[in-house]
Write a structure and sequence with these properties.
homotrimer, 363 residues, alpha+beta, Naphthalene 1,2-dioxygenase Alpha Subunit, Chain A, domain 1, Rieske Iron-sulfur Protein, 2 domains, 4-stranded antiparallel β-sheet, 21 strands, 20% helix
Chain lengths: 363, 363, 363
């Protein structure tokens, strides 16, 4: 399905009809690789985290391999994250049951012989660059080749990357739709990324398998401050192209390319920005969110790093505050409500249709 | 129905039987004019408020007309109270949709032409003296002539009025019953309005259409402090009459008349007090409450104003604290409970029967 | 049923099957004497407390007799604990209804004659030594001879007793199982009572009517610090026997006997410790817990008192923190869970089977 926006009201959605669109209430898609944590958050102190509805404890073996287990001893429900690590084993703090990194119980001290069939569920986890991915869905579907390929995050020679984390009281459906949608920029982000021309620029939105790709082109325009200022090209007219991608329920990427056809001496003609949004729902009403902004020039310039952190924290804070306000409305307003959508919402709705379909397959 | 109290146990109520009495759990009556706010609370900064279960945003046009809209953008559920006013239009803070005071969307900036059929629900609102009334029920029933007539609140020549506001965790059914009932005065308000003689005084209670009127007469008695002290007649014997009225689910009035048959030179023979209780449930367990105490003498005497505020804040605080304690019991006590009523509860039960009937008509 | 532990996995429990084991979700057993309060907590100021799901107000008559009433006026649900005592009568704070200690209303001031049939439910309460017992279940089953006999708590000549109180967010089923189980000692209490030999010592567990008795014997061993240090016998080898008893849903006792076969001059050959755990669920997720540690030597030695308080507060805090962590897991983990038990859990499961059966009889 490919579309170009035409400007009509799409009419009211009936979100729970078959063939329709995910809302905050749609069951979470579990058969998907989600970010469990920044890789450096996981270490030799067990870390408890709720991920896609699953209570998980995360730690590393002595060799540094990440481990994710259900954070509940199968014996008396003690949270294993309150236990201790001995070598690669996680020891329950209540009765001392010892679990290997594969979840097999190898010692129950109160018993003279260890029962051979006792295990705690483990979840596939994989380190990739700065993050660790987890699969909380059906284990037999946990194919590592499905982990989104984000090579710029692991490349600190060519790319300079800054990052941040938020925990928010909102749903991942609204979050995806917010990231796909740029028509809100002039209103929610008037001081940062919003320019009305960009919000109105023509786009194409394409569904590719279970991804949605939105492309925009702008020629001979002023650079947006967030990209132009660190590159010191605010006095130039530039061409601008962008690709926003609903990669999976867990990931959204945005690539921005700024072309300066007449670069000053010693400066590049092309500036690339790759923005990576990873978010993992705790539940239908809360999200862990990690963002990464990568640039392909002056990768170790601390002043640019600082600028990028500040500008993006500001913009994302505005989005997240809005999403929390919306969640609050959705939770507390008991009056009937029918959601209204416009042609400009189509790209977001394409993603919500995918989320709906993926969730339906599991439930 | 007219009755005089006779002193017998009315027996246990079965509150949910047809023909019976509203309780805290009865659906709120929505087809009624309620106070939305003090008129001066509503201005050019949008004000969010939950009123009779509806999430509402309140503001004024440039001409000063009050506007009440649903506090939820029909597009992506952003709370409109977080938006901004431009002229008479409320602008959604998310995508910049512009709503006129009649709720019609007149601009959606992301679209080149404005869709013609998009609206947000508005609610009839009317300024009357110090308060603004709202109708959140069926729009076609919103007849302004149904707004209770409280002319003394708008007359600051003849009347001196003091006012106050509380937000309480209680139900409006208990609140109405508390206001109708005076047998609790000696116990809940021993230091203020309670005298046992008054509590026991004979009353008549009459249902007039959907109102309940309770009348009491006392002759040749000592004045109650709350009325006698500001009038400086505590040394006199007076006659006293009162009318308490369940006006509507939203309003209770109490008129007190103190007659001094032998007034001192230059002093009146009659002192009138009109007390107006406006309360608007947020939900079945919380209320906005505005009270007004008006007197017909020395209307601009600040010392009397201060006395009236202090005395009534004290008494009302005692009532509201008790109602919150009761709400807490009702919510947390899971054991079966059958409410017991006495003949002295009849006036309150007459009001609860009306509330029950009005609620049933809507549900 | 008598068993000795043999070390095999018992397999997964299906807790809600008939004939099975109580969990935190099993209805509370109400036909049982529970501790309502320490006797000295109940006095001439009404005390509100939730006990086994019942909202109760506790006070004493002028003669010192304990009274327990439902904390809800049958008239308008005012919490009677917010009222006042006049002589033996509890006066409702709302309309002044007066209830005698037997729950009969003897005055309703708003009425000229008192209705003869109005009562508030009272609950049987009995003082026994330092505590007051209550029966919130079926009144006709409240046989005082069922109150557990704990004579050492009332004997301060032979016995020195220290005590403490906790309020915890946990369920009484887990609490009972925790007290019966000693295999957790080395892990949860490594610094206090835990020794691996003791945890592994052979035990017998016997069901006697609706009680479970667990007996352990250890010969020629080092004394545990918590008993050996106050007795100043840490340099000795001793014999040790213990009896832990699930007395009722409300009480668990533990008797420890330390035998010194070669006592120093002037010192006893036998040290007795009686530990009494009384706990009363508020609900399925919260408990009032009173503990008592009694010893049969130097009963008025304040240094030993201090030691016993500190050592036991420490150990019990560790248990209670663990039980709260588990409650938190059980409440928040929505994924399916099947509880796994081992042979060492049998004594606890015997108690949970009794709790299950008692609850089933009532529901």
């Amino acid at each position: 399905m490919t579309l170009t926006t035409d400007e009509t009201v799409l009419g009211a959605m009936e979100p729970h009809e078959p063939g329709n669109f995910a809302t905050h209430a749609t069951p979470l898609v579990r058969n998907c690789w989600y970010v469990a944590a920044r890789a450096d958050e996981i270490g030799r102190t067990p870390l408890a985290r709720k991920l896609v509805g699953a209570d998980v404890v995360l730690y590393r073996t002595e060799a540094g391999e990440p481990v994710a287990m259900r954070n509940r001893c199968p014996h008396r429900s003690f949270p294993l994250a309150r236990g201790t690590l001995e070598g690669d084993r996680l020891i329950c703090g209540y009765h001392g049951m010892e679990f290997e990194a594969d979840g097999v119980c190898v010692n129950m001290p109160a018993l003279s012989s260890t029962p051979s069939t006792v295990t705690v569920r483990t979840y596939p986890v994989v380190d990739r660059g700065p993050v660790t991915w987890i699969w909380v869905g059906a284990p037999d579907l946990a194919d590592e080749s499905l982990i989104p390929d984000l090579p710029w995050l692991s490349d600190d020679v060519e790319w300079g990357t800054v990052t941040g984390h938020f925990h928010i009281e909102a749903d991942y459906v609204s979050m995806h739709e917010n990231l796909i949608d740029q028509t809100h920029f002039p209103f929610l982000h008037p001081g940062t990324v919003g320019t009305p021309e960009y919000a109105r620029s023509k786009l194409t939105a394409t569904t590719e398998h279970d991804q949605v790709v939105i492309r925009r082109e702008l020629s001979d325009c002023a650079p947006p401050g967030v990209y132009g200022r660190p590159a010191e090209i605010m006095h130039k007219r530039i061409d601008r192209s962008s690709e926003a991608r609903f990669v999976s329920p867990a990931v959204h990427t945005a690539f921005a390319r700024i072309t300066d056809h007449d670069p000053d001496p010693g400066k590049p003609g092309l500036y690339r920005y790759n923005i990576t949004h990873c978010f993992t729902p705790e539940s239908n009403t809360a999200i862990h969110y990690w963002w990464f902004v990568s640039r392909d020039y002056r990768p170790r310039d601390p002043a640019i790093d600082r600028f990028m952190v500040e500008a993006h924290e500001q913009a994302y804070s505005e989005d997240l505050e809005a999403l929390e306000w919306i969640m609050d409305v959705v939770r507390n307003d008991a009056d009937p409500h029918i959601e209204l959508s416009f042609a400009t919402d189509k790209p977001g709705l394409m993603a919500r249709r995918i989320l709906f379909r993926l969730a339906r397959k599991e439930n």
